[in-house]
Amino acid sequence: MDKWFKLKERGTSIPTEIIAGVTTFFTMVYIVIVNPGILSSTGMDFNGVFIATVLASIVGTLIMGLWSNYPIVIAPGMGLNAFFAYSVVAGYGVSWQVALGAVFIAGLLFIVLSLTSFRYMLLDAIPATLKHAITAGIGLFITTVGLQNAGIIAASESNLITLGNLAQPMTYLTIIGLVITVVLMAYNVKGYLFIGMVITAVLAWIMGLFQMPESIVSMPQGLASTALQLDLAGVFSNGLYTIIFTFLLITLFDTTGTMLGVAEQAGLLKEGKFPRSRGALLADAVGTTSGALLGTSPTSAYIESSTGVAAGGRTGLTAVTVSVLLGLTLFFTPIVSVISGIPAITSPALIIVGFFMINVIGKINWKDLEEAFPAFLIIILTPLTHSIATGIGVGFIFYPVLKLLRGKGKDVHPIFYIFAILFFIQLVFLDH
């Protein structure tokens, strides 16, 4: 085991790696509850999505751990699941089967990119300012979804959005759960999101907002309802080309950024470079592709992996430990399905994840109009249009236009002009 994971070389041990894996697991396990809850709103079977979420996470994480030997976890990404459910299915009016088809194609493209150096060209073509704007826009989008699900904000005839009825039990319980989770976060409690969900679930049970299932444990079942149900033909008949690109784009740079951050924290970068990056990216690409086949939204590297690194994790054994623990959750479908249906339990996680994502706004140079204004459009339009693709599209169109009008067209990467043209065609001429 030492030879495979290079434990001594990285200054770690089996007990340390296992503890790190347990730590990471408890900080990211909320996704097995939140992800099926979000995707089931599209009509997908909850049990099927739950199993698909766990299996796709295990596939990607095992590849990451066994092949690339990094303590990084792969699982369906927050933001990508909301984009899948609320923008693609609800916004474009296509079936979840078609949306899965788009994810599958994006995953195949990601695999190709992972095996070639073109992935670096694609990442370099997008200005850092717009990358930060996309992350911030998705953060606001996720927060909006969490606030709406909880009833803290609501639609209004006179206003676009207004304050909801805070006297509703589910709404004020959400606020209580949010306060509890933020306090846990402030005191640096490991797994604060998951612990906050558990405490809120107990309070919901005491308040009579849900009943415990007859059994806590059961054999996994329901995967057949989502597995191999993707509709590839529908992707092309509906012209979802920019949707494919959006899935690919977000997954690629979100995963790359997270991996670099975690690897740097673990001291695994060599002269600023990311060794075995091909295998690491391929882990996410295969996770996304297999997830589409099984029935879930795209996977991504999880920033929560940093908690395991902080606990001493330095090798892929940490990731393997997480995979084993994820496998055990498959047998807790009854309780997970009940908990995920309570907005007060899941909404605080959405709001807090959004908070972390919007932190990157500070990295945007707001004094440079050519950079800042397209970024502003992405950030503001993503939640207001309830569409990540629309927010990105408008920003990607404005960016080269402003550069050209300022006589700085050569500063724009040639590939970026292709991005802008594709988004222009999608937004102006195709149904969205």
Give the overall silhouette.
globular
| Arithmetic mean of pLDDT | 88
The largest sheet is:
2 strands, antiparallel
Give the strand order, joined by hyphens, for the main sheet.
Answer: 1-4
Instruction: Tell how many strands the DSSP assignment holds.
Output: 4
Uncertain segments of ≥5 residues (pLDDT<50)?
A: none
| Residues in helices, as a percent range | 55-70%
Q: How far is the N terminus from the C terminus?
A: 52 Å
Question: Could you characterize the architecture of this molecule?
Answer:
This protein has 432 residues and is an all-alpha fold. The chain has 20 helices and 4 strands. The mean pLDDT is 88.
Secondary-structure blueprint:
Elements: H1 2-5, H2 14-28, H3 31-39, H4 46-68, E1 74-76, H5 80-92, H6 96-114, H7 118-125, H8 128-150, E2 153-155, E3 161-163, H9 169-186, H10 192-206, H11 232-237, H12 241-265, H13 277-294, E4 299-301, H14 305-310, H15 316-329, H16 333-340, H17 343-358, H18 369-384, H19 388-405, H20 414-429
Antiparallel strand pairs: 1-4, 2-3
Helix pairs in contact: 2-15, 3-4, 3-16, 4-13, 4-15, 5-6, 6-12, 6-13, 8-17, 8-18, 8-19, 9-10, 9-17, 10-17, 18-19, 19-20
